[in-house]
Amino acid sequence: MQRIERIYSSRLFQPIFLPVLAALVLLAYSNTFSASFQFDDQPSITENESIRSLANVPALLMGQRGVTMASFALNYAMGGLDVAGYHVVNVSIHILNAMAAYFLVLGIFRDEDEARAKKVAAFSALIFALHPVQTQAVTYIVQRMESLAALFYLLGLLAFRRAAFASTWLRRGLLYAATSAFYVLGFYSKETAFTFPFAALLYDFYFIGKGSFQKVFSRWPVYLALFALMLFFTAHDIVPMSGFGDLSRDSSIIASLKGGPPAASMAAANAHPAATAGFAVEGISPEEYLFTQFDVIVYYISLLFVPMNQNLDYDFPLAKTLFKVPEAHRGAVLNIPMLPPAASLAILLFILASGVYLFLRSRKASAGAKKTDCLAASFFIFWFFLILAPTSSFFPIADVIFEHRLYLSTLGFAVILVVAVDRLLGLVSERMRKRPA
């Protein structure tokens, strides 16, 4: 055991681990580089004439999810519609996300013990990178939207942390400016990055301000900037789209309304006249969508533990009332039996209550591994729900479930799992040492 711990203490661990992490991701996705364009890849890429000239990049950037659309234009400039190039970029973004996840987790645990921090961060990053549920966000090309937004989300938190500990006001100001810039880039990759200011506030309260509101509020200038941006995004983007869309055709329609590249966007608008997000979605009310999301989130959690029967296009039953089991269509393949939404809500409330309990327990614990573990587990429980909030609330979206929505939430699952297993193994090891020979 001590020999293993010395590996994490070595200065060479990080320079070796990060390339190994990248190699494992490449190996895991090595058979996907020829996977063809699917579903929403058509309106966003193969049928989208606006990405076929780099001269359109400024106009693309002005549209919804403009950062991602501009990246598709760069892909097209490099290799046309050769699918391999798009997959190379998607996998590269996933590798960068895994590395950013490693550094984010490392920063949380580093104050306690450097070697253990590297261990927890490494295994968390590996689970995040290699979990099968990530396949859709990485391999479904158009969902570069999800992974690219996640990359800027993580980079924003890393910049925020470095700013908080910066030694000079100039360095601090530049890093806070970078934090705000990453928020803008994340939101215009996909609007699910909308929640970033709350994530920064929660991270600050847990790991920088150490539970002191006074210390958190001392950073009011950056919060003023972040929440001002949030208000702008709400008025300029979220309200016109009536919520948080998840289909690429939503972004095409909104882009046309804002004066974005007209050819493909107007074609998409004409081909899909019905609303796909917001209160005008046909066939599902805000109340029914909310009830359904209780079951959806429980199903997401089941996928994290047992990633079987994964699907790009689920036939997920809608919940009409809170206390009635939703009726699945014949032939629908689901891993777990559907629960009445009230039962799913009870499960979710128990998990949230566990987050509160772990935080309160951390306040009573002395400094050390136990305190850090409780804080981290609590933080990532709330992280899980915060990341899902835009797509799993009462704002209806035509498709009630997509695996790619779990992409960044999976990091929370990974950290909690690693911490739980590590503590369990520690208890077993301690009992074995105490056992008489």
Gap from first CA to last CA: 18 Å
Question: How much helicity do the residues have?
Answer: 55-70%
Structural class: mainly alpha
Shape: globular
Q: Count the beta strands.
A: 0
**Can you count the helices?**
19
Low-confidence stretches: 248-274
The ordered H/E elements are HHHHHHHHHHHHHHHHHHH
Based on CA atoms alone, the radius of gyration comes out at 22 Å
The biggest sheet amounts to:
none
User: Taking all residues together, what is the mean pLDDT?
Assistant: 90
* Fraction in beta strands: under 5%
Structure summarized in a few sentences:
The two termini are 18 Å apart. The chain is 66% helix and 0% strand. Mean pLDDT is 90; it is low at 248-274.
Protein architecture, described:
Helices cover 66% and strands 0% of the residues. It is an all-alpha fold and 437 residues long. Helix 2 (13-28) packs antiparallel against helix 6, helix 14 packs across helix 15 (262-271) and helix 18 runs antiparallel to helix 19.
Q: Which descriptors apply to this entry?
A:
globular, mainly alpha, 437 residues, 19 helices
List the helices and strands and how they pair.
Layout: H1 2-9, H2 13-28, H3 41-46, H4 57-61, H5 66-79, H6 83-109, H7 114-130, H8 135-139, H9 144-164, H10 169-187, H11 196-208, H12 213-217, H13 220-241, H14 248-257, H15 262-271, H16 286-305, H17 341-364, H18 369-388, H19 409-434
Helix pairs in contact: 1-7, 2-6, 2-7, 5-6, 6-7, 6-9, 7-19, 9-10, 9-11, 10-13, 11-18, 14-15, 16-17, 17-18, 18-19
